[in-house]
């Protein structure tokens, strides 16, 4: 019989771990583009979509003026007679409407977090991104009620980003955990798995997102999961969780 390993806390990545970021972003961007075309942008949807993908890859997904940049890339005749601000506003509004309606966690995520929140485990977040944007996701995804309030670490707020090991070490030490007593669940083989393996955390790769489907890291995760039910099974089998 193998002895259970000691586990005192679990930190989660947000994007493509708690919800399908890729699927949500596509839907929100497509809806925004349709609204912009409806408001007077005379560009074929497919062309606008390709151009928006380029804007996002060139200026990053956290850039705040994607739609202004998008319009600027088309000839002036494409917005003939329409105030560009109206077209941008139409896109922004539709993007946010989609966010209000469609930003949901994977259903098993809430169910499993609810079970884990009844245990002594520290349950936290380590995420790379803008403070307000990532905090909004935590609240909107309705996971906050199940988390340990002082266990949320957002790279912009901490001032250290993935894959710098100092970010994960800061999270562990702030919660009184040794890295080997803490688990990290994420989808990115390099930023999540390699980075946490390097500092001795227990790594779990969540395989559901499409973004890193075919990506390989330098190291293997300790565990792989397809749903959070798989995670619960691991915690029960290898870490003596009785919940
Ligand atoms: Mg991720």
What report would you give on this structure?
This protein is 47% helix and 11% strand. It has 243 residues and is α/β, with parallel strands linked by helices. The chain folds into two domains: 9-19 and 104-239, 3-Layer(aba) Sandwich (Rossmann fold); 23-102, DNA polymerase, domain 1. It has a six-stranded parallel sheet, sandwiched between helices. It is elongated and about 70 Å long. 33% of the residues are buried.
* Architecture per CATH nomenclature, i.e. the level-2 architecture of the largest domain: 3-Layer(aba) Sandwich
> Globular, elongated, flat, extended or rod-shaped: what is the shape?
elongated
Number of domains: 2
Mean pLDDT across residues: 95
Q: Structural class, judged by helices and strands?
A: alpha/beta
In short:
By secondary structure, the protein is α/β, with parallel strands linked by helices.
Key terms for this structure?
single chain; 243 residues; Rossmann fold; 11% strand; elongated; binds magnesium ion
Describe the SSE topology:
Layout: E1 9-12, H1 21-38, H2 45-59, H3 66-72, H4 84-102, H5 107-116, E2 122-127, H6 131-140, E3 152-154, H7 155-158, H8 165-174, E4 182-186, H9 189-198, E5 202-206, E6 223-225, H10 228-239
Parallel strand pairs: 1-2, 1-4, 2-3, 4-5, 5-6
Magnesium ion (MG) binds at residues 13, 15-17, 186-188.
